[in-house]
């Protein structure tokens, strides 16, 4: 019998207590590392690959409904302003314009206002319109003839700091006696580095199509959390959530930015409600870059104290974060507090309130920023101590979470170090630094990855096996491109004993009411796959019971694999359909629920990346030549999809280090590069050689699969590894990322007099 | 204005606002939504189509300017089932979210039509105008090599 139990649930480092349904019949032993598996661990192509290469995959903006209107949004051109004029009547009177909603329009939904008459960032929505054509909607926006009085703004973090503008009080996390430990340390290093505002820039912008039928709302939403979108729309429009259906079949990337319904779906639903017509609202690129989301700019000051033998004795990290209008303070100091063994540690956060959109999640939020700076400081310490950087990391390895004191559920970081060193040629890295025929400076740097990724309940799945021997797996997954539907297909087929092509997994629709969590926090694989396997286990057991009826052999003596039922003594070997065809129109159904993670552990993912760079000291150009990425994320279900995830994370990390930065004009407070021309995403021509490997050992403490999440870990250490490689090559560090030519030349100018082009490795600051 | 467009070997007589862009006609008027809009300013390549066999950004082209030319979209390339190139994209997992994929296939098709066995450098040169935020680039390169019958390491 199912029971309800209290358990702790983790999402990107935040813990909450939740009630969870637990069914003892869902329990299956985790496949051991050496289990003889037919499909899990073998590369599989995407279930929906053909749809994606032919253009048949339908994304939100591709939805067209009869009578559908096109929406457009008027946005603030200034960082802070008061609307003085808005010709709503003139806009509404244009031919083909069906609705105009503005801050003072009486709108039929509750909650925080979505349209502002006093705007607090450039790009903030002021009004929304719906017209018969995109052209009519655009004309309506023009006809509003916005007048806006600019008010003082603050986008400069130093100004915000001087004025003590915080989204919440600065906070401090301390353990031990940090000051005394620094005083007693043999060596102390300190490093201050700025990290850039970094835009998710999914190629498909945020968007939604809303359609009312009576009191029922159907919304196609480009989101990472369709169940959150459902809850949000139900709340906004005072509907029971059963009356809201959210469809999210294909999403053109999210990277953290697409949470819940978003402003787009709520405005589309409101415009559809007042016009009684379906409405499509898709952000244009400029709006997306201004208001789609952002990883915050930070300035971090990291101080490390160590003994001469390399043992860390004290860590301090102070993070100034330009939050915009607010949002969660992501765990920037988490790496400083937890990455290595250290008794005395202090983390301080200063979340600044600036005239920018509230920041939001971007792939491993907080920890990527934190590792990017902290791991550079660790390299400075290695230099000051004269210890190999990788060796210093090994020396300070931990088996327990430093903040809670709890052991890790599994951790194979040392194996990652060893393998990454081997694959990168780490032992010969000093030979890179000699004179090079091409005149470039070369270097190699490493960095450690930490992140969560253990998943947890609630997550569910149902499976229906039919007479033809095909299984339909229903999940609440919204596959934003990570391939999780295919992962579910592999897991279900393995447990059912069917070939992959006899299993189809559906997701992307809340109508079935089979819940999965948001596609974020590296949660989907560890949360949903155990539920899928549990559901499949029930169907398999029923199938073998029925086989026992038909074949007159005890179910315990039967097994199913590759679509065939075999007796354990080898005497019988029949296709599954031998049994299922007798079902007629009946089906074998099973459902599974994700059980809780065991108490007494912290679940994390780990890894090590090593980058090799070449620096043109004359031009200030840095090219990443090679990145080796070795990660421990437990069991790998689909090595093909996993390598894709890791390559993508590495590339985003390389660009975070070298090219991506939202530049804000301090005078106007307006971003100047909110377009794909000027915001420099990497292209295929920027790709280094990337070598991916996984430790691939199942976590024995995670339910039934032993897999952790992989969406976020690969981006975490890349920028730090690149920056460390640059420092190895040049003996210098850029005080701010990305390492543009200007910043590189500035950093190298500091090296003049020490012999241009020669990599003289003076520690940037050795205080004692 | 009335124009005749030749798309995927079909002729369409259309009455359009003069300023309507080719991408909007393809997507909204002809329902050919395989062509995507990523930026609408010629910077991302998601809207790539072939104009007389040459890849162009359909967001930068007025529909009227396409009159008298043969337009081929991703749907046109897929008419007879998956091409070797599309099969290679699936086999190599040369896509993640898939939003840029039609544009990638269109550009790669044009490359292979002109250069049967492109080098890695030629691939990087020809494909640099097609952004992929998921970072499928290493596998896109492999897929193009594979589809052109070349060794993939």
Low-confidence stretches of chain B: none
Tertiary shape of chain B: elongated
Task: Output the structural class of chain A.
Answer: alpha+beta
| CATH domain topology of the largest domain in chain A | Aldehyde Oxidoreductase, domain 4
Task: Walk me through this protein's architecture.
The complex is a heterodimer of chains A (768) and B (153). Chain A is of the alpha+beta class. Chain A folds into 3 domains: 3-53 and 455-477 and 486-499 and 515-593, Aldehyde Oxidoreductase, domain 4; 63-151 and 200-291, Aldehyde Oxidoreductase, domain 4; 298-454 and 600-749, 2-Layer Sandwich (Aldehyde Oxidoreductase, domain 4), CATH 3.30.365. Chain A is built from 18 helices and 28 strands. The longest helix of chain A has 28 residues, at 524-551. Chain A starts with a strand and ends in a 19-residue tail after the last helix. In chain B, helix 3 (84-92) crosses helix 6 (137-147). The longest helix of chain B has 14 residues, at 101-114. Chain B has 153 residues and is an alpha+beta fold. The model of chain B has no long low-confidence stretch (mean pLDDT 97). Chain B has 2 domains: 2-77, Beta-grasp domain (Ubiquitin-like (UB roll), Roll), CATH 3.10.20; 84-147, [2Fe-2S]-binding domain (DNA polymerase, domain 1), CATH 1.10.150. The interface between A and B is large, with 57 and 57 residues.
């Amino acid at each position: 019998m199912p029971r309800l139990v209290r358990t702790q649930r983790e999402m990107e480092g935040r813990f909450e207590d939740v009630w969870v349904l637990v069914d003892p019949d869902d329990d299956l032993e985790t496949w051991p590392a050496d289990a003889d598996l037919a499909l899990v661990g073998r590369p599989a192509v995407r279930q929906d690959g053909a749809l994606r290469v032919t253009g048949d995959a339908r994304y939100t903006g591709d939805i067209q409904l009869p009578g559908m209107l096109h929406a457009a949004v008027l946005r603030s051109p200034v960082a802070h302003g008061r609307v003085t004029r808005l010709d709503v009547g003139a806009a509404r009177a244009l031919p083909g314009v069906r609705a105009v909603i503005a801050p003072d329009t009486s709108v039929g939904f509750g909650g925080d206002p979505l349209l502002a008459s006093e705007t607090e960032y450039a790009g903030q929505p002021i009004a929304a319109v719906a017209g018969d054509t995109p052209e009519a909607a655009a004309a309506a926006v023009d006809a509003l003839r916005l007048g806006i009085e600019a008010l003082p703004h603050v986008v400069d973090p130093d100004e915000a700091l001087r004025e003590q503008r915080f989204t919440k009080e600065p906070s401090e996390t301390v353990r031990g006696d940090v000051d005394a430990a620094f005083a007693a340390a043999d060596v102390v290093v300190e490093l201050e580095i700025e990290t850039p505002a970094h835009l998710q820039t999914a190629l498909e912008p945020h968007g939604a199509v809303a359609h009312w039928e009576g009191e029922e709302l159907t919304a196609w939403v480009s989101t990472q959390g369709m169940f959150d979108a459902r809850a949000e729309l139900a709340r906004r429009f005072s509907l029971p959530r059963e009356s809201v259906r959210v469809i999210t079949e294909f999403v053109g990337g999210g990277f953290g930015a697409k949470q819940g319904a978003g402003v787009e779906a709520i405005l589309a639903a409101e415009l559809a409600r007042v016009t009684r017509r379906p409405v499509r609202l898709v952000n244009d690129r400029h709006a997306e870059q201004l208001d789609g989301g952002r990883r915050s700019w930070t300035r971090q000051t990291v101080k490390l104290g160590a003994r001469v033998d390399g043992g860390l004795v004290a860590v301090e990290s102070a993070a100034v974060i330009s939050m915009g209008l607010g949002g969660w303070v992501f765990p920037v100091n988490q790496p400083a507090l937890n990455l290595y063994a250290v008794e005395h540690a202090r983390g301080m956060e200063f979340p600044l309130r600036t005239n920018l959109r509230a920041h939001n999640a971007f792939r491993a939020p907080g920890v990527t920023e934190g590792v990017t700076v902290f791991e550079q400081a660790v390299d400075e310490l290695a230099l000051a101590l004269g210890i190999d950087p990788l060796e210093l990391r090994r020396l300070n390895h931990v088996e327990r979470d430093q903040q809670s004191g709890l052991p890790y559920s599994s951790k194979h970081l040392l194996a990652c170090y060893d393998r990454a060193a081997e694959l990168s040629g780490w032992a010969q890295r000093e030979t890179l630094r000699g004179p090079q025929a091409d005149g470039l400076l070369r270097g190699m740097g490493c960095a450690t990855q930490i992140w969560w990724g253990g998943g947890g309940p609630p997550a569910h799945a149902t499976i229906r096996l039919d007479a033809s021997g095909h299984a339909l797996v229903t999940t609440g997954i919204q596959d934003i491109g990570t391939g999780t539907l295919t992962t579910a297909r592999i897991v279900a087929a393995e447990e059912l004993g069917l070939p992959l092509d006899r299993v189809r997994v559906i997701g992307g629709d809340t109508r079935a009411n089979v819940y999965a969590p948001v596609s974020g926090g590296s949660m989907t694989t560890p949360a949903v796959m155990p539920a899928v396997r549990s559901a499949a286990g029930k169907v398999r057991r029923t199938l073998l019971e029925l086989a026992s009826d038909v074949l007159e052999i005890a179910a315990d003596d039967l097994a199913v694999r590759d679509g065939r039922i075999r007796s354990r003594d080898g005497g019988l070997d029949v296709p599954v359909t031998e049994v299922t065809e007798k079902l007629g129109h009946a089906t074998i159904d099973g459902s599974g629920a994700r059980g809780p993670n065991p108490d007494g552990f912290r679940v994390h993912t780990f890894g090590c990346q090593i980058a090799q760079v070449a620096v043109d000291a004359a031009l200030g150009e840095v090219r990443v030549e090679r990145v080796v990425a070795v990660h421990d994320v437990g069991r790998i279900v689909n090595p093909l999809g996993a390598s894709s995830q890791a390559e993508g994370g590495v590339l985003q990390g390389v660009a975070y280090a070298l090219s991506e930065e939202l530049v804000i004009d301090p005078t106007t407070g307006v971003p100047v590069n909110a377009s794909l021309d000027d915001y420099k995403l990497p292209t295929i021509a920027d790709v280094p050689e990337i070598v991916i490997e996984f430790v691939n050992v199942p976590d024995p403490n995670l339910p039934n699969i032993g897999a952790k999440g992989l969406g976020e870990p690969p981006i975490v250490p890349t920028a730090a590894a690149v920056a460390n490689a640059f420092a190895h090559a040049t003996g210098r560090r850029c005080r701010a990322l990305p390492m543009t030519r200007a910043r590189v030349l500035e950093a190298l100018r500091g090296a003049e007099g020490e012999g241009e082009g020669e990599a003289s490795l003076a520690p940037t600051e050795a205080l004692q | 204005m009335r124009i005749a467009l030749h798309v995927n070997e079909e002729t369409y007589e259309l009455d359009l606002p003069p300023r309507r862009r080719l991408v909007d006609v393809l997507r909204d008027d002809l329902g050919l939504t395989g062509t995507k809009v990523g930026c609408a300013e010629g910077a991302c390549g998601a809207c790539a189509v072939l104009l007389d066999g040459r890849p162009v950004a359909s967001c930068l082209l007025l529909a009227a300017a396409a009159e008298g030319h043969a337009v081929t979209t991703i749907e046109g390339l897929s008419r007879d089932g998956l091409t070797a190139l599309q099969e290679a994209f699936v086999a190599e997992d040369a896509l993640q979210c898939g939003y840029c994929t039609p544009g990638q296939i269109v550009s790669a098709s044009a490359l292979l039509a002109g250069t049967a066995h492109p080098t890695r450098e030629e691939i990087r040169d020809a494909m640099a105008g097609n952004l992929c935020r998921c970072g499928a680039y290493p596998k896109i390169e492999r897929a193009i090599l594979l589809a052109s019958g070349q060794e993939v390491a």
